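Protein record

Derive tokens from sequence
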Amino acid sequence: MRVALVKESGGPEVLVPAELPDPVAGPGEVVIDVSDVDTIFVETQIRSGAFSDHFPVVPPYVPGGGIAGTVRAVGEGVDVGWAGRRVVASIGFAGGYAEQAVTSPGHLVAVPDGLGLREAAALIHDGVTAAALLEAIAPGPGERVLILGASGGMGTLLVQLAHAAGAHVVAVARGERKTALVRELGADDVVDGADPEWPVHARTALEKAGGPADVVLDGVGGSMGAAAFALVADGGRFSAHGAPSGGFAPIDAGEAARRSVTLRTIADVQLTDAEHVRLAGQALAEAAAGRLRPVIGKVFPLEQAAQAHAAIEGRGLVGKVLLSTRQA
């Protein structure tokens, strides 16, 4: 089978096409014919070697943890009803950039009729994390929600979910194309993050809506996240879950405690397999019903996984970057 292989730690160029033997379903396993593969920023960081202390993968390895496809074969002890079904699965941190992948049936989520595998793949990571964040931080009707990184794969979903919850959404994105998109998705006010004065504009938008932010959803981190902390109300909630800037927002826990701000991080949405399956099913159902729209910026063929990683790191695209195993 065709795969994309990280041959050594380094830049996108270390991600190369390769051939490996087709997998076989052992007891308690299924083999999936992979159609589409989610790609996320943390996979580029793992590839670079930056997170070697945190993730149990060493080169050479096949990256990728979020896949969509059709169950090809089931092993001993697995319900044969899974065979031939369209599914998504979160399989960890390796094995997904491939034509076939092995996992356990406990990771499978059936894709509803009417939803494409490509759209389902775009939700397997970000749809689950966005739903978990919204459950944890629970924005309510009339609350003011500030979203940083609003045009990314997860940011576009958070805009839609917060809007659906009845919140007043102030979205921060960079450039005219991205700000137009998040407004289309339901943001009440949009601020261009490329403007050095964006915190001033965000504060103005929030104050017009009634006061500081009740909730900040920081998908950027770094200095932008730190600036956004000044915009959250005393007694508000701040989620520091994004780090594409190179690090999570450096929030002073003592200052947060003094202001009674509830801090949440990506560690607060580390999910069990059962929780992941539940939230993935919820996200897929919402998308199938037309209430949640995954934004797909570009789809690369499997052989161009290196270019996909470069596009993610360049942050020039809007929405999700996916890989496809489908032959042209």
